[in-house]
Amino acid sequence: MKNINVFRCAAAIAFSAILFACGNRAVKTEIVPRETAGEVVFEDIFIGVPSDMLIYGNLMMIRDMHEGKALTAVDRSTGTLVGRCLNIGRGPGEVSQVADFSVCGDRLYAYLRDMGHVNIYSLPDFAYIEAVDIPDSPDKLIRMGDHYLGDGAMTRNGRLQIFDAQGKYLFAGNDYPDGGENSARAVLYQGDYCVHPAGNRYVFAATYSDKIEFRAIRDGVPVMVAETEGPENVKADWAPDGVNVFLADDRFFGSAAAWGGAEYCYLLYIGKNRGEEGVTRGMSDTVRQYNWDGELVAVYKLDRPVASLAVDEPAGHIYGFSLEEDGNIVVLRFDMGV
Description:
Elements: H1 2-14, H2 16-21, E1 34-36, E2 38-43, E3 53-56, E4 59-66, E5 69-75, E6 80-87, E7 100-104, E8 107-112, E9 117-122, E10 128-133, E11 140-144, E12 147-151, E13 160-163, E14 169-173, H3 182-188, E15 191-195, E16 201-206, E17 212-218, E18 221-228, E19 238-240, E20 245-247, E21 255-260, E22 264-269, E23 284-291, E24 296-312, E25 317-323, E26 329-335
Parallel strand pairs: 1-24
Antiparallel strand pairs: 2-26, 3-4, 4-5, 5-6, 7-8, 8-9, 9-10, 11-12, 12-13, 13-14, 15-16, 16-17, 17-18, 19-20, 21-22, 22-23, 23-24, 24-25, 25-26
């Protein structure tokens, strides 16, 4: 990795004139992908259709909303099933079907946007602690250090919101760019987030375009550090029908998942592959690794496409779901070779 950093420094100096001429637009650097083969580490553990993945030490939590439970928990060190966790419902300590999960420290956070609050649980025992009310019910919300980061067009106070630990507004703003219908802009800026463990930086990876935002929190305000695009520069093609605004070609897709580590952030990049022959919708075989300043440092080419993403950075492992030929869903682990 040191050699790559040295190369990037030299390249930055060599291309400084180009950067100036381009008005500080990012210059895309092509990196040879590192090929890596996946190993099945968990199978026959899912009840429904899994989606998001979370890691707390050796505990992996997988969103698997089915048969009254929200999460499937497994032990990565032993390869065993821990159990099914968190009841689905609307009572105290229960979660709804639209819950967004995040881990910060030794706490699990479940944001229930249809109920307007966050449930907090201790880890690793999943004991319910309390619920925190969130004003205006943003479309998406995750825990970030001592704060909550909210995003979405459903709020009246701007695209981005930052709340303190008690759910009080600290910041609201950053409107959508000018141009286009409001609903089009709302969809275009939907995506996934990953947060630095220190809680002072985050990355937004758009779903319906190649837009990637790298932001830092300074004095309680999100400040843009870098803004870049994926390799295909995907742009959504909007087709208004007079009432709604929708994608004319649903193959347009950017990043399907994001993961934040202490050193790097990782994006599961789909690009225009969605719906093409031979590619399962919503899955990808490409993971792009960036530093927190927005520089691309590595690309991993997986031997099998996966959905969702989790990374054990110290161990050098990438995790994802994959679909076997017999229809069984398995968890794969890929070696990053670092």
